[in-house]
Design brief:
Elements: E1 7-13, H1 16-28, E2 33-36, E3 54-59, H2 63-82
Antiparallel strand pairs: 1-3, 2-3
C-alpha cells in the first residue's frame, strides 16, 4: 500500500548549494525530503530573480519539525555573520 500523504514546502532555497545543505540537515534528523526546481541544473551557484530557487518539500506530518530545524539553521547562520 502506498503512502498518500501530501508533500508540503518547508523552505525555499536561493540555489542548489543551499538546498543541498538544508536537505542534508533534514535527512540527518530522519526527515526525507524532495528538492523541486523549475530551472534546469546548472554549474552556476547563484540565482537571479528567483530563477534558481529550489523548493524543499517534506511529508506534511514532518513539516513542523522540519521548519523548526530549518529556522534553527537560519538563526545559526545569522549569528555567525554578526560576530
Amino acid at each position: 500500500m502506498q503512502n498518500k500523504e501530501k508533500m508540503v514546502e518547508v523552505y525555499r532555497a536561493a540555489g542548489e548549494m543551499e538546498a543541498q545543505v538544508i536537505r542534508g540537515l533534514l535527512e540527518s534528523y530522519g526527515i526525507p525530503c524532495l528538492m523541486k526546481s523549475s530551472a534546469a541544473p546548472s554549474v552556476h551557484t547563484f540565482a537571479v530573480d528567483g530563477m534558481g530557487e529550489v523548493r524543499i518539500m517534506v511529508l506534511e506530518s514532518m513539516a513542523e519539525k522540519a521548519r523548526i530545524l530549518v529556522q534553527g539553521e537560519d538563526d545559526a547562520q545569522v549569528a555567525g555573520q554578526s560576530g
